[in-house]
Write a structure and sequence with these properties.
seven-stranded mixed sheet; Rossmann fold; 2 domains; about 400 residues; about 40% helix; alpha/beta
């Protein structure tokens, strides 16, 4: 009897972490002869066609989602079931969590015993039910490097106010990662490296206070590098943020974002002496993840193996495979957390208050501890803390926040 096949569904824009998960699936399938072989196809439609023709029978079929493409409908699910494909692994963020939940509900309606797993691959780190998402450690390091370069450019050439809007749709994790720029070895020689002002959606935004802080930073440093989470815009400006499938409106929204911040800073007392520039960083920006961290690479392989193990273990329940970093005598280890799809799809993983930067944009102790294992950081935590102007105690982060 042929073993039941597995359909692995990747997001529309696979990241380096996504590719590493696929590599992990291939390694896991080869390591255990009882698992089916892996076969990569171009898209979901091609995978469904190959399955219906028996070409992918008993295999792990990996497919990327294309624009407006969906596999979640009763007719397709019935067809896959009849062809022996009864196992599904989603890799991605909120969109994939919603698809996994929808598939689970369809299986319940049709009384089909489907095994469904979700691997949290989302560099925006916004999935609830996991301490961190795959790819966030790589994002945090790469984005901190990029922000340091942007501030160095501001100090060397522009000498003005530079507002950088990050693609944080639900929470401020990407914007928060910019606070790590001062911890980079290469940036420590730069005096008062930015960002100097950071705006997170988890914090109350006051336009008057924002202008005051930017003005103060410019007067003190001769420049002001500002990082604003995109989600802040939906709270204060009424600008509709485009979805990933609305590329035609993305450019218009980016222009609106830039015009908003430039207009807001027109009231700054230093407006006459400070040129203002605003830039929106799209989700596909090449600087967001320059290199996959060792931690992300290791976790991607572990998640792939765990997903396959859950698929072929009768007692394992459907859900997202959440992660938690636990300190050990030899460093850190990753533990897995089972999370229902409904929680991952609808709840928000918000930045806790103990992670907020101070008024000068300095990174908090709690956020340093949180990101250290994710970036596979070899720098001693106490040394990292000394870089800042001051240390402050922070309450321990609570996963439930």
């Amino acid at each position: 009897m042929t073993m039941s096949g597995v359909l692995v569904i990747l997001p529309r824009f696979p990241s380096a972490a996504t590719r590493s998960v696929v590599a992990g699936l291939e390694v896991a399938s080869r390591a255990l002869p009882t698992l089916p072989a892996l076969s990569v196809v171009h898209n979901i439609s091609e995978a469904v066609e190959g399955i219906s023709k028996g070409v992918l029978e008993g295999k792990i079929a990996v497919a990327e989602r294309k624009k407006s493409e969906s596999v979640i409908d009763q007719k397709t699910v019935k067809g896959l079931w009849n062809c022996g494909f009864r196992n599904f692994i989603f890799v991605g963020g909120k969109h994939e969590a919603l698809d996994a939940l929808n598939l689970e509900e369809i299986a319940l309606e049709l009384s089909l015993n489907l095994k469904i797993q979700l691997i949290p691959d989302d560099f925006t780190n916004s999935l609830f039910g996991t301490q961190h998402c795959l790819g966030y450690g790589s994002l945090a390091y790469s984005f901190a490097v990029w922000i340091a370069g942007e501030d160095f450019d501001n100090a060397s050439f522009f000498n003005g106010i530079k507002v950088l809007v990050t693609p944080d749709r639900d929470a401020g994790w990407i914007a928060l990662a910019s606070t790590l720029s001062s911890q980079l070895q290469a940036a420590r020689s730069i005096h008062n490296i930015g960002p100097h002002v950071i705006c997170l959606p988890e914090q109350t935004f006051c336009s008057r206070e924002f202008v005051t802080r930017v003005t103060h930073a410019f007067q003190r440093y001769g420049r002001a590098t500002v990082v604003v989470a995109e989600a802040v815009m939906s709270q204060i400006s009424g600008i509709a943020l485009p979805t990933s499938d609305q590329n035609s409106s993305a450019g218009i929204a980016a222009l609106q974002l830039s015009e908003f911040w430039i207009g807001l800073l027109q009231n700054s007392p230093v407006r006459e002496n400070a040129p203002i520039r605003s830039e929106f960083i799209p989700t596909y920006h090449k600087t967001l993840i320059q290199k996959l961290s060792d931690s992300d690479r290791t976790e991607s392989y572990s998640l792939a193996a765990q997903a396959l193990q859950n698929i072929f273990t009768a007692t394992a329940s459907n859900g997202m495979i959440g992660m938690r970093s636990v300190a050990t005598n030899n460093g850190y280890k990753c533990e897995f957390i089972a999370t229902p799809f409904e929680m991952a799809a609808y709840k928000q993983h918000r930045v806790p208050a103990c992670f907020f930067p101070d008024a000068n944009g300095s990174v908090s102790n709690a956020f340093l501890k949180y990101t250290q294992p994710l970036m596979h950081c070899s720098v001693n935590l106490k040394e990292m803390q000394k870089v800042r102007d001051k240390n402050r105690a922070s309450p321990q982060w609570d996963l439930a926040q």
